[in-house]
Write a structure and sequence with these properties.
Blueprint (H helix, E strand, L loop, with lengths): L1 E4 L9 E4 L5 E3 L4 E10 L2 E9 L10 E2 L2 E3 L6 H12 L8 E11 L3 E10 L13 E8 L10 H14 L4
Parallel strand pairs: 4-9
Antiparallel strand pairs: 1-2, 2-3, 4-5, 4-7, 5-6, 5-10, 8-9
C-alpha cells in the first residue's frame, strides 16, 4: 500500500491510496457517501449527482455525493460533511435507514454508502460544488436509463434493499 497525501491538515483523509492490487482509491481512511431517498406515496426518488468530467472516474456519470473520511469521523459524519461540501445541506429531519459497506481491501479501505430518508426534495442547483455538474431526484424506474458510476451501479441492489425497509 502507498499513500499520497494532498492535504496537510492533521487527520485529513484527503489523499490517494494505492491498494495491494494496484487499484488507486481516494481517501486515506476510506470514503463515504450519502444516498437520500424521498418517498412520495408509492414512488421512491433518489438524489444522485452527475460527477464532473475532471473528477477521478467522473466522466459525467451519476452516483452518490461523497468523499474521503477524515481520521476523526465515522462514515455518517463524513457522508454528511461531503454532501454539504458538494451538494448543499441535507434536509432537516433526515433518518438513517442503514449503511452499506463495500470492503475493497480488508482492514485498509472501504466505501460506506449511508442511506437516509428525507421528507423534502430540495433543488441544489445554487449550492453545487464544481465536483458535480448537476444533482437530481430520480425515480427507481428512471435509474435504468442513467449512466451510473460503476461502483455505485454494482452496490445499487444492496442499497435498494436497505431502502425497502419500512421508513
Amino acid at each position: 500500500m502507498r499513500v499520497v497525501t494532498t492535504d496537510k491538515r492533521p487527520g485529513s483523509g484527503d489523499g490517494w491510496v494505492t491498494l495491494d492490487s494496484g487499484r488507486v482509491v481516494w481517501g486515506r481512511y476510506g470514503a463515504a457517501g450519502m444516498l437520500l431517498c424521498h418517498r412520495d406515496g408509492a414512488t421512491d426518488r433518489l438524489l444522485l449527482a452527475r460527477r464532473s468530467h475532471w473528477v477521478h472516474g467522473g466522466n459525467g456519470l451519476w452516483s452518490v455525493p461523497g468523499g474521503a473520511i477524515d481520521a476523526h469521523e465515522d462514515p455518517v459524519e463524513a457522508a454528511l460533511r461531503e454532501f454539504d461540501e458538494e451538494i448543499g445541506a441535507v434536509p432537516l429531519g433526515w433518518r438513517l435507514a442503514g449503511i452499506h459497506e463495500v470492503v475493497v481491501q480488508p482492514g485498509l479501505w472501504s466505501y460506506h454508502t449511508c442511506c437516509a430518508y428525507v421528507d423534502e426534495r430540495p433543488h441544489y442547483d445554487a449550492t453545487l460544488s464544481p465536483e458535480n455538474d448537476e444533482a437530481a431526484w430520480w425515480s427507481l424506474d428512471e435509474l435504468n436509463d442513467l449512466p451510473l458510476f460503476n461502483p455505485f451501479a454494482e452496490a445499487l441492489p444492496s442499497l435498494l434493499e436497505i431502502l425497502r425497509r419500512p421508513a
